[in-house]
Amino acid sequence: MARRFTLIQGGLSEPPSLNPAAEAPRAPLAVDLRGALAVDGEAVAAWRALMTRTGSGDPFQDPDFLLTAAQHQSAGQQIAFALVWHRPASGPNTLHGMLPLRIARPLLARDRAHLWRPPGLPGPAPLIEPERAGAIVAAVRIRLGALARPVELDGDPALLRQDRPPAQAGGHAIRRRGIPPASLLGIRPDGYRPPRVEHVRDPAQVRDAVETFLALDARTARRPIIADPAEAAMVRVVSRLFARRRQISVELARSGGTVVAGTLHLGSGPRAVAWRHAAD
């Protein structure tokens, strides 16, 4: 049998790799589709590790927020989390992407999946490694198409970009223009005292502070949170879970002993965002 040769420009071939692992083909990405209650502790730990690697400090990408929102604010929709893993033959598994999906099953059309946006947020909150975005989307499409009842992923992959506008109080992106202090004019009545602002961060005190906030919201809002049992449960559960990690603070302003304003902040430090706000 004649030996076949490969000609290389210049007559020189590359030296063989000294690292056998470098020659091994990379394992394909594996996709798990799980409901919120099926995302276990291992997956949550890998999810948090992915947030660290991507530099995400967005509390609305945190599993404590998204999994709770899926349980309490799905409004009857089928919500699934596509967890995209690299599972090598040996060594630990690595999570490279998380896509929250809303599965739609129309009667006269093919089932479709859309990126899910929890109520109150300006957009979806997928979490992916940017350099693997194409491979992650392709893997999710293949996994959905291989289901017993195939599902088509809708939406442009560009929607997976991580540059969503920051969410402010009430979950809406708000741009405020400050008034220079020198331009402020006003008349205060005799004996006026500015509200005293209290910041509650101690996990043991957060629960009572949240209930105080909900009472203020019920007194002042057109659509009180406690009027919707699902939303009220979601606020209470998220507050409790974030308090365990000291990732929530409750700001209460009191005037004459009465609470007149309050804000729930998720996250810590400069990346904390105002989640819910109420004022008298």
What does it look like?
This protein is of the alpha+beta class and 280 residues long. The chain folds into 2 domains: 27-165, Aminopeptidase (3-Layer(aba) Sandwich); 193-279, Aminopeptidase. The protein is 27% helix and 23% strand. It has 6 helices and 10 strands. It has helices spanning 20-23, 41-54, 63-72, 133-145, 203-220, 229-244; strands at 29-34, 78-86, 94-104, 111-115, 127-128, 151-153, 196-200, 248-255, 258-266, 273-279. Strands 1, 2, 3, 4, 5 and 6 form a 6-stranded mixed β-sheet that branches. A 4-stranded antiparallel β-sheet has the order 7-8-9-10. Strand 2 and strand 3 (94-104) form a beta hairpin. Helix 3 (63-72) packs antiparallel against helix 6 and helix 5 runs antiparallel to helix 6. The longest helix is centred in the C-terminal third of the chain and has 18 residues, at 203-220. Mean pLDDT is 83; it is low at 2-25 and 162-179.
CATH uppermost class of the largest domain: Alpha Beta
% residues in beta strands: 15-25%
Query: How large, in whole angstroms, is the Cα Rg?
Result: 25 Å
Annotation, overall tally of beta strands: 10
User: Runs with pLDDT <50, length 5+?
Assistant: 2-25, 162-179
Number of domains: 2
Total DSSP helices: 6
CATH architecture label name of the largest domain: 3-Layer(aba) Sandwich
Shape: elongated
Would you tell me the structural class of the helices and strands? alpha+beta
How far from one another are the termini?
90 Å
The helical percent reads: 25-40%
Secondary-structure element order, N to C: HEHHEEEEHEEHHEEE
Mean pLDDT: 83
CATH topology-level name of the largest domain: Aminopeptidase
Largest sheet at a glance?
A: 6 strands, mixed
